[in-house]
């Protein structure tokens, strides 16, 4: 491989074929599902479909597409970090329950409960909620359960099923959906109340980090609901619900803790649920504009889009892509054989915040940077996102052995940010500063 030096212009691609990166296969395919029809989706019920986030299969059943899955992964990563912050441990619970698991609440679920029968005539339910199940799990895993073990915080992110009477092609009434559900177990009411507030504050922190506009609604003394505004529907949507459940469910499940003299005592249970797909709906709705979705970097599918504007800029684009990937930044390299305005429109549509244009024309332009106020806001958003997502992309590992010239940082590129007006001409070194990865 030859050593490349960037001077006045950007050389043609001569030392490495773009096939080395498998560009067209890996990136073009990732955008399948992005609607060809572009335009204002801020008031459109399809603001999850047009950016290629999901597609509806039938009423109440959707599939999440590659771009949408990236957003979901970022939302879930924030949740994992914040649950770890308060000491919650992740578990994985089955979706298939023996029919006796939720016997006491079967009437409560009524016809919303999906049930099935195996070849031997044994009845099962598809999991609508996990309070009874996690109590049974804890009883089997910690026997006897001691007061010294309490409190215990557990959570999972998994699928739930509800036979909705009126399922719809939104994430408000789904038959199958992803929920983050957490549970805390306590030796007394005071401990349950104290840790209930800990989880409540953690949930408010998560929604604030995701830059969602939400209300916390108090329902009695032991229940709160979190609601996000859907501007396109002019309504509030429940995105999370938390409860202090007392000891009724744990007692029914046979879960008690052992105290002095081996006496059995009731265990108090709290439950905390977040609808992951509802967060997706709320984020897309609240951040929609005339060009698509303007997502905050912390939940955007990629941090950066690099767009080579002509064939002569492909090599430099590849090197910038490699540089950013090796710094742990999730980067989309758009080398599709499509008009430049279409590629830019697609990057805006799916909500990538940092857009980089690579062309020799920028070497002839005077450098222009965002003003100090905008620069600080961009860097702040990058730092917040990097805290949760830097070095998490598989590309970071795949490109560690790729060599790039140090001089790549000195070339000028075009730059724009999805949340701020204007296009700038900056050196790649300045781009690294805006992404908070300069060394």
From TrEMBL:
<dbReference type="InterPro" id="IPR036621">
    <property type="entry name" value="Anticodon-bd_dom_sf"/>
</dbReference>
<feature type="domain" description="Aminoacyl-transfer RNA synthetases class-II family profile">
    <location>
        <begin position="70"/>
        <end position="296"/>
    </location>
</feature>
<dbReference type="GO" id="GO:0005739">
    <property type="term" value="C:mitochondrion"/>
</dbReference>
<keyword id="KW-0547">Nucleotide-binding</keyword>
<dbReference type="InterPro" id="IPR045864">
    <property type="entry name" value="aa-tRNA-synth_II/BPL/LPL"/>
</dbReference>
<keyword id="KW-0030">Aminoacyl-tRNA synthetase</keyword>
<keyword id="KW-0067">ATP-binding</keyword>
<dbReference type="InterPro" id="IPR002314">
    <property type="entry name" value="aa-tRNA-synt_IIb"/>
</dbReference>
<dbReference type="InterPro" id="IPR050062">
    <property type="entry name" value="Pro-tRNA_synthetase"/>
</dbReference>
<dbReference type="GO" id="GO:0006433">
    <property type="term" value="P:prolyl-tRNA aminoacylation"/>
</dbReference>
<keyword id="KW-0436">Ligase</keyword>
<dbReference type="InterPro" id="IPR004154">
    <property type="entry name" value="Anticodon-bd"/>
</dbReference>
<dbReference type="Pfam" id="PF03129">
    <property type="entry name" value="HGTP_anticodon"/>
</dbReference>
<dbReference type="Pfam" id="PF00587">
    <property type="entry name" value="tRNA-synt_2b"/>
</dbReference>
<keyword id="KW-0648">Protein biosynthesis</keyword>
<dbReference type="GO" id="GO:0005524">
    <property type="term" value="F:ATP binding"/>
</dbReference>
<dbReference type="InterPro" id="IPR002316">
    <property type="entry name" value="Pro-tRNA-ligase_IIa"/>
</dbReference>
<protein>
    <recommendedName>
        <fullName>proline--tRNA ligase</fullName>
        <ecNumber>6.1.1.15</ecNumber>
    </recommendedName>
</protein>
<dbReference type="InterPro" id="IPR006195">
    <property type="entry name" value="aa-tRNA-synth_II"/>
</dbReference>
<dbReference type="GO" id="GO:0004827">
    <property type="term" value="F:proline-tRNA ligase activity"/>
</dbReference>
